[in-house]
């Protein structure tokens, strides 16, 4: 039994005539007839009755039809899975809490693997990153803390420090460090899409960004 025979049989069921089914399949009518005949011989069953120039499933055909549908459905699912597998096999998905790590990694990645696509996602939610990694949506993720889970490998990448820049005559210019409380109420010009660092907004509710 061949998969092609099952596909041909389903076309006959749908169109109910050899002529219409062969046209839909883009094959000759004799070739379709031979395929059906060979399938019936293999099964040892006649599957169709002729009724007013139409081919209609008989009792045997109705019995085997659910199995054939299930086989074709499973084949379709397998084809979709393999297509997605091949697609993902040659693509890297990186998700990060902050944009800066992506800048350096993107450059290095394209230097070493210029032909392989790289997709990037910036998120501010740690749990969303972990869920995406667990569901294989991401090849790797970048967090702001060490991940202590046995089934994942976690390595430190680098330390990132937040800085503010002010004019030299600004009252804050003489300070070597500063708290969010002292900054609260100051207006800031920041980059858009800074991921995790957007959380600083909640520490300075009276500031404008």
TrEMBL record:
CC terms in the record's Gene Ontology section: protein-DNA complex
An annotated Gene Ontology molecular function: DNA-binding transcription factor activity
Record's keyword terms, sorted: DNA-binding, Transcription, Transcription regulation
All residue ranges annotated as the HTH lysR-type domain in the record: 1-58
SUPFAM superfamilies: Periplasmic binding protein-like II (SSF53850), Winged helix' DNA-binding domain (SSF46785)
Family, similarity comment: Belongs to the LysR transcriptional regulatory family.
Name of the protein in question: LysR family transcriptional regulator
Annotated source species: Candidatus Fimiplasma intestinipullorum
Lineage: Bacteria, Bacillati, Bacillota, Clostridia, Eubacteriales
């Amino acid at each position: 039994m061949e998969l092609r025979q099952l596909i041909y049989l389903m076309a006959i069921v749908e169109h109910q005539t050899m002529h219409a089914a062969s046209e839909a399949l883009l094959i000759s009518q004799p070739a379709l007839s031979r395929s059906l005949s060979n399938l019936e011989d293999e099964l040892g069953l006649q599957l169709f009755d002729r009724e007013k120039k139409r081919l209609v499933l008989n009792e045997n055909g109705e019995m085997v039809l659910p199995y054939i549908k299930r086989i074709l459905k499973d084949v379709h699912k397998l084809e979709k899975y393999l297509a997605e597998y091949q697609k993902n096999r040659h693509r890297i998905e990186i998700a990060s809490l902050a944009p800066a790590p992506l800048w350096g990694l993107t450059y290095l990645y394209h230097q070493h693997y210029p032909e392989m696509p790289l997709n990037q996602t910036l998120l501010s939610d740690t749990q969303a990153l972990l869920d995406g990694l667990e569901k294989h949506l991401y090849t790797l993720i970048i967090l702001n803390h060490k991940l202590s889970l046995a089934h994942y490998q976690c390595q430190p990448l680098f330390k990132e420090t937040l800085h503010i820049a002010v004019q030299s005559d600004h009252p804050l210019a003489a300070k070597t460090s500063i708290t969010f409380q002292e900054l609260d109420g100051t207006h800031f010009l920041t980059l858009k899409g800074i991921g995790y660092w957007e959380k600083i907004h909640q520490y300075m509710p009276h500031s404008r960004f």
